[in-house]
Amino acid sequence: MSVALKSVITETAQSLEEKLTSLLGETVRSEELARPERLLEAMNYAALSGGKRLRPILMVEAARLFGHENEGTLVAASALECIHCYSLVHDDLPAMDDDHVRRGRPTTHKAFDEATAILAGDALLTIAFDLIADEQVHPDPAIRLRLSQELARASGIGGMAGGQMLDLASEHHDRTETEIRQLQAMKTGALIRYACRAGAILADASEDDIARLTRFGEIIGLAFQLADDLLDLTGDAEVVGKATGKDAEAGKATLVSLLGEEQTRQELAQLISEADELLVPYGAKANTLKTLARYIADRES
Known about the structure:
Layout: H1 3-23, H2 37-47, H3 54-65, H4 71-91, E1 101-102, E2 105-106, H5 108-111, H6 114-132, H7 141-155, H8 160-169, H9 177-202, H10 207-234, H11 237-240, H12 246-250, H13 255-259, H14 261-278, H15 287-298
Antiparallel strand pairs: 1-2
Helix pairs in contact: 1-3, 1-4, 2-6, 3-4, 3-9, 3-15, 4-6, 4-9, 7-9, 8-9, 9-10, 10-14, 10-15, 14-15
Protein name: (2E,6E)-farnesyl diphosphate synthase
Keywords: Isoprene biosynthesis, Magnesium, Metal-binding, Transferase
InterPro entries: Isoprenoid_synthase_dom_sf (IPR008949), Polyprenyl_synt (IPR000092), Polyprenyl_synt_CS (IPR033749), Prenyl_diphosphate_synthase (IPR053378)
């Protein structure tokens, strides 16, 4: 990672951390009755445990590309991160992927208990829609409604949750390349696609620009999944921050298992080249997004 990109990621991640800490604090919001201490503690454990914050950072940078940068963007990005963190809590549960380590420490259900982890995930999911509907996100209620509806579709049955179902159903079953690409576009790609698209929507970009950033998000969503599959195959668990080799152990269908490591790496390079081409019209303003795309493909954790 370049020094410049590391600086941007660190600065934006710190801003997001501060915003999430505030939003998931003890202060009861209007129409809430109370915030139970143990549930709040588990939510904070899941959401404030570090991580790369790639999805919210992509949203912030996509909005910045069109000159849009304010506190409302951080609130919207925090909503997206709450969705992502809820999905990790639930994915780690014994009934799902049964993982004991996440980001180098015990998963939420190990640090607390299964029931608390389920409720923490539920609460992170629901607070996300509270946040995305906040007037601070955008003055136009039609934009907030669009962001909320698209977030629901990216994270629900036709997106992330549906993709996780397809992934579970693929264990110990042969899947075609088309089927694998479909489930990965939903499970992993949908929220990354949303991050880039929502940033452009927040910035009141043109529909052409929104479409271009949407395609950029689709490409790097696939790149992220391919890199993740390679890490599961070849990565060091100490560096990755979670158990590796679990896809093969669970008999999960991945593009790496179907195409092989060399062809997968070739496709990754092609994807990043296409992502660069999409951002050419924006010149130097798109440098951070371009570098982020390369980082996603080359990451080691």
